[in-house]
Amino acid sequence: MTDGWRHSEGPFAWRRSLWLAALLTPALVVMVLFVLWPLLSAFRFAFYEFNGLRPSGFIGLENFRQVLFEKPYSDWTWNALKHNVIAFLALMLFENGTAFLIAFALLKALPGHRVHQVIVFLPVVLSAVIVGFLWKLFLHPLFGLVNQLLGLVGIGAIPWLGNENTALGSILFANIWHWLGFPTLVLLAGMQRISKDVLEAARLDGAGDYALMTKIVWPLIAPSVTIVTILTFIGSFNWFEIPYVMAGLTGSPGGSTDVLGLYFYRTAFGSTTTGIQDFGQGSALAVLMFILVAGVTAIALRYLRRREIEQ
After folding, report:
1. pLDDT tens digits, residue range 146-188?
2. What is the pTM for the complete model shown?
3. What is the CATH number of domain 65-310?
4. What is the DSSP string of the chain?
């Protein structure tokens, strides 16, 4: 009986494996062509000098030296990196902090909480390009909705995207509005996994909302916090669409909104204003960005996973 069953299982297992291979092959082809191959090509091209889009000679680490230590390239690199760090800190503090508070409010199941869950998540489904154009119109100094509302209370028009002191903050606000719903739902899902008995026992012991959030909820949603932190870091250092749409490829005004994604793109492919194009330097920037994101992500994951176990 056993031998007969194995004999009949053999052809079925072979057909099943063939069917799985057929389903996975298109995805693997796409990954190889559009992810793995460009990544390996960037690693290779980072060590070459370029004449247009053609490699003209092997130059070793020269491209890396130029973008990190040779002016004016190094100034642009460190300025863009600084803005990425500011973006990460701002998103962690304002976006994820607000998301935690909203998630806790939704956890209390107040009247209409299901409708509010949908409302909070709606901006996430919009394209980043649409969000960028939308907020660029809202922040227009002459006919933008924001300045019109400020005018009702006697505040004059503010050039939000034209002032070096407000441009980056304005773009960050648009990004927070766009993505706030995602960490909210991730943190809410973590909170909903906490046993109701634990929360009710804390309430009976006299714990208020603040004590409940800091002493019970926060430690018990460590896995959700790990996910949100890692995705926020990766997103803030791959930031491109909204800064590009709202401030342009050069990170205007005066480079105050420049980030690594914009700097890499205009270095590799050029721009109409700077006229600079060096695919070798652009590849070196791409490699440095990959090493930075992968390295910090690995270290952060190790630390945050350890925190989950300790909690």
Report:
1. 999 999 998 888 999 999 999 999 999 999 999 999 999 999 9
2. 0.88
3. 1.10.3720.10
4. -HHHHHHHHHHHHHHHHHHHHHHHHHHHHHHIIIIIHHHHHHHHHTTEEEETTEEEEE-TTHHHHHHHHSTTHHHHHHHHHHHHHHHHHHIIIIIHHHHHHHHHHHHTT-TTHHHHHHHHHGGGGS-HHHHHHHHHHHT-TTT-HHHHHHHHTTPPP--TTTSTTTHHHHHHHHHHHHHTHHHHHHHHHHHHTS-HHHHHHHHHTT--HHHIIIIIIHHHTHHHHHHHHHHHHHHHHS--HHHHHHHTTTTSSTTTT--HHHHHHHHHH--TTT----HHHHHHHHHHHHHHHHHHHHHHHHHHHHHHHH-
